[in-house]
Amino acid sequence: MVKERARILVVGGGYVGMYTALRLQRRLKRELQRGEVEITVVTPDPYMTYQPFLPEAAAGAISPRHVVVPLRRVLDRCHIVIGEATAVDHAERTATITTLATEEEGTGGQRLPYDQLVLAPGSVSRTLPVPGLADHGIGFKTVEEAIGLRNHVIEQMDIASSTRDPAIRDAALTFVFVGGGFAGVEALGELEDMARYAARYYHNVQPEDMKWILVEASDRILPEVGEEMGRYTVTELRRRNIDVRLQTRLESCADRVAVLSDGARFPTRTVVWTAGVKPHPVLAATDLPRNGRGRLTCTPELSIEGTTHAWAAGDAAAVPDVTAGEPGRECAPNAQHAVRQAKVLADNIVHTLRGEPLQTYEHAYAGSVASLGLHKGVAHVYGRKLKGYPAWFMHRAYHLSRVPTFNRKARVLAEWALAGLFKREIVSLGSLEHPRAEFELAAGGKPSQDPPDNPKGSS
């Protein structure tokens, strides 16, 4: 039984936010029924995105709705607020929240009081002041971006197939990916695989006509899988005629021309930016301690250092790695740690409410797996190195076991089974991004916010 009524505020609905709230509502089921505890989750989206499946969603192997987990269904004992925390005053135990109705109400953000705070807003894309990036770059962090990129790639193939201008055709069939981490490599591998398959349905577009370019500033890609597997990945990608450029930076993409630091210039209509992430901006609008990289300074118990009743984990938190042999090491900000940290974090909140001793987060990094397209992958798990089909199979098996809820597991497994029996679905649904465009045109108006190369907003 808790000592006093507790209002628990969870900021963020990603890995840490969802798994923490899910465990809290299980551990505090009786307290919630008696009204002794109240759990509020503030999140900009009503769902949690399982990001490791974004590349397969972009390639059409998994339906977009199966990559996300509806929070209202899973967190049925929590109060879900669709909005964002813009500031946190922990000294006063209040958070400033804006919701979808804030602008219409005209009253500004509302102050939400709390007794226990879980700050897990995650991260945002880390961009650089590259000319043209804000105008032409495409991110790959959300399901909307993944499906939008899929539509975009197929539309570029449609443009290349229909144009008589060689320059337009060449730019449409040139795809530049910046960043050699998991997001960039997996997205490139899956989309190149999909486009290669789709080319068989175009009478004048061949796989050899397309240019796929991976740009990485360091001297290796996929550092998480080890140096040997990273070299193998480079070899595998180049064998597929993918141009991998290491120790190279994107210096400009203005006027739809990608200019690289090695002097190369590629006219292109596709620049995908996956060059890392940075902590969410809300962390700077708090009175909580942060380290030099802007992440919240945490203790091994996942409380925010120097405070009480405030907790953090995941991308937003700098958590000491107690399993490391050297002091000062921090846990990597990845999903493997985030899911496990959420469990300890939730348990420690329960321990705090019940006056029990806290537990320390301790997890040795197990390794990593990455997909490079259908039946292709690399893995370095518990010291064992795998490549090709075995690594790809391990990638799918691991993530199937980790995707939340039995419902999602069954649906994803069914889609994979059907994909093995039938051909891929290659279709662009670009009109979904501008659903009113057709009606506005019919009503005599001018379609708004449509991409310049697709004036009607449909493929």
From TrEMBL:
Class of this enzyme: oxidoreductase
Annotated region described as Disordered, given as residue ranges: 440-459
Keywords: FAD, Flavoprotein, NAD, Oxidoreductase
Pfam family of the protein (one): Pyr_redox_2
Any one Gene Ontology molecular-function term assigned to this protein's record: oxidoreductase activity
Domain FAD/NAD(P)-binding: 7-341
Feature: compositional bias, Pro residues: 449-459
EC number assigned by the record: 1.6.5.-
Family named by the database record: Belongs to the NADH dehydrogenase family.
The protein's name: NAD(P)/FAD-dependent oxidoreductase
Organism: Streptomyces olindensis
